[in-house]
Amino acid sequence: MMLSIIEKQIKRVTCNKYVNPNLLNILSRPTNEIKMNFPVKINDKIEIFSGYRVQHNNYLGPFKGGIRYHPSVSLDEVNALSQWMTYKCAIQDIPFGGAKGGISIDVNNYDDKQIEKITRGFTKALYPYIGSNKDIPAPDVNTNSKIMDWMTDEYNNISGNFNQTSNMKSVFTGKSVGLGGSHVREEATGRGVALMIREWALKKNYDLKGKNYIIQGFGNVGYYTCELLNSYGMNLIAVGDHSGYLSSNEGFNIFNLREYVRNNKGINGYPYGDEISKEDFFKTKCNILIPSALEYQINKENSKDIQCDLVVEAANGPIDHEGETILEEKQIPIIPDILANSGGVLVSYYEWLQNKRDEYWTEKEIRDRFDEKIEHTFKKIYSISIRNECSLRNACFLYAFEKLEKNFDRKFNI
Ligand code: NAD
């Protein structure tokens, strides 16, 4: 079902522009779809978990993509997410291909020790398919640096390598800084989202200072997006997550909210703001709407009520085909996921390079390099959209297809 979002997105591009049909044919299916059922002993009982890894395409470099722990994880979902990764890496000119993986699991049913056991079990199952020049996993929904550290440790245990050589560290990105991770990785995706908004605003002569925004998802990506947007003088007036939705005309103190979410695993019960429904959240009149949780959140039902100047897809696939058509009719522009949240894989690439070279770059070096690259990428895609009179999403696909086609031609000696 999720794959059909991509098919429709691609159809929007190809109805106006010629794209090599052989390339499209290749990209329509992933290279490898792996399902692993692995046993883990939980409270003296054996439970069988289903894990997935889909390796979509590696024309541009080793497969790369996050690991998600969520009940909705399925082959179809991972498949779609892996394909978006291929385009995301192409758009950022990163020498990686696309992959994605995950376990179908409700993390709320397990404690930390059990999550570690499950993570180690999954790493054993994944072992033959991943590697520093083959496929490099990273964090995604409900996974973080702690999980990447466990995965790295388990991978090294299996390979009998305890010395953490550069090659062994570079199998995973998003690790904690003390164990080969990179500065700025944790904040990278959200930072990239906010910088893309700033670049869009510069192009449109749209002053962000004093403007407001609403965000669905206050996890890693959501929080860091808010941190930078607030530093531009913007105000968060409604927020939601898996536990509920809140609104406040004065705006939220994002630092206090973060502290609360850390301690309570969700925004439910936060003592400031008014509780609202999910429907009312999407109806909230605001300047910028940022879905930063899961896919399919903006659809035929709620898009007609959306009142904002811009929608930014911090999450992957949050707007379905009908939702996008309605937003287009309402002339609400979208900064698409494959552009908006591409900052995460950019710093993952920096982490991989540092590991490979046994280097440690300073926070400043990474921020400077990152900010310049995000600015450059936005300008590049924006100018393609102007030249072709198309949306930013279509411009992203046009750029990615052109880049992938060069490698496709070489591969098939055309
Ligand atoms: P996270 O686990 O840190 O946070 C997820 C947030 O979504 C939480 O606030 C959670 O409460 C909320 N959420 C979960 N289910 C929900 C539901 N049913 N309704 C409303 N809210 C719900 O994950 P994250 O890393 O912030 O990822 C968020 C999105 O960004 C995902 O789509 C992910 O694929 C995408 N993304 C993440 C990265 C990264 O580096 N972490 C990179 C690129 C894209």
Feature tags:
414 residues, alpha/beta, binds nicotinamide-adenine-dinucleotide, seven-stranded mixed sheet, five-stranded mixed sheet, single chain, 48% helix
Q: What's the helix count?
A: 16
Write out the strand line-up for the largest beta sheet, numbering strands in chain order.
Answer: 9-8-7-6-10-11-12
Decide which structural class fits the backbone.
alpha/beta
Mean pLDDT: 95
- Low-pLDDT stretches are none
Which ligands appear in the coordinates? nicotinamide-adenine-dinucleotide
Approximate shape: globular
Q: What's the β-strand tally?
A: 12
Report the sheet-strand fraction: 15-25%
* Helix content class: 40-55%
Span of the ends, CA to CA: 33 Å
Radius of gyration: 21 Å
Tell me about the biggest sheet? 7 strands, mixed
Order of helices and strands: HHEEEHEHEHHHEHEEHEHEHEHEHHHH
